């Protein structure tokens, strides 16, 4: 399966990206222009891709298991090299779920399925980055 996304240089350090569906995103910034505009940092896009990929999987898996998920917040803490190319060394993903009668074993299984079977971003990164995750379940 082949899909195309694109990036176009706007000016300074700012780029406009477009996904395969035509959705746009501003990346980088205009450090010397007035007014200054800041878009998404490119390395944050990688983290956001990981989080959104896995969050999507977890929501779909829990829905298929007929769980009443009310809210999900996923965050990432990362460690990058101190010098160029600033490669990611570690990424820790934390899932915080709110719902009715969510069970830890089922949440853990949904996360494991995402990480081992479904999330393409996780499965790409795991070959070069130390990945870890945990979760917490909040009441309704």
Describe this structure in words.
This protein folds into two domains: 1-40; 42-138, GMP Synthetase, Chain A, domain 3, CATH 3.30.300.20. Helices cover 31% and strands 38% of the residues. The protein contains three helices and six strands, in the order E-E-E-H-E-E-H-H-E. The strands form two sheets. Strands 1-2-3 form a three-stranded antiparallel β-sheet, with no helix packed on it. It has a three-stranded mixed β-sheet with strand order 4-5-6, with helices on one face. Helix 1 (42-64) crosses helix 2 (104-118). It is globular. The protein starts with 5 loop residues before the first strand and ends with a strand. The model has no long low-confidence stretch (mean pLDDT 93).
Structural class: alpha+beta
In what range is the share of β-strand residues?
A: 35-45%
Q: What separation lies between the terminal Cα atoms?
A: 41 Å
The 3D shape can be described as globular
**CATH class annotation of the largest domain:** Alpha Beta
| Uncertain spans | none
Q: Tell me how many strands there are.
A: 6
Order of helices and strands: EEEHEEHHE
Side by side, the strands of the main sheet go 1-2-3
What is the average of the pLDDT values?
93
Total helices: the number is 3
Overall tally of domains = 2
CATH architecture of the largest domain: 2-Layer Sandwich
CATH topology value of the largest domain: GMP Synthetase, Chain A, domain 3
Give me the Rg, rounded.
Answer: 18 Å
CATH superfamily of the largest domain: K homology (KH) domain
């Amino acid at each position: 399966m082949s899909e195309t996304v694109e990036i176009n240089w706007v000016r300074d350090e700012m780029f406009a990206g477009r996904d395969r569906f035509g959705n746009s995103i501003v990346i980088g910034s205009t450090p010397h222009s007035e007014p200054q505009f800041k878009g998404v940092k490119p390395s944050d896009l990688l983290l956001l891709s990981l989080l959104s990929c896995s969050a999507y999987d977890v929501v779909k898996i829990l829905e298929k298991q007929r769980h009443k998920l009310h809210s999900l917040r996923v965050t990432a803490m990362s460690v990058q090299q101190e010098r160029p190319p600033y490669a990611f060394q570690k990424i820790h993903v934390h899932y915080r779920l709110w719902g009715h009668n969510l069970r830890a074993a089922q949440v853990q299984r949904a996360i494991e399925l995402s990480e081992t079977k479904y999330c393409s971003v996780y499965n790409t990164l795991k070959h070069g980055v130390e990945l870890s995750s945990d979760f917490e379940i909040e009441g309704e």
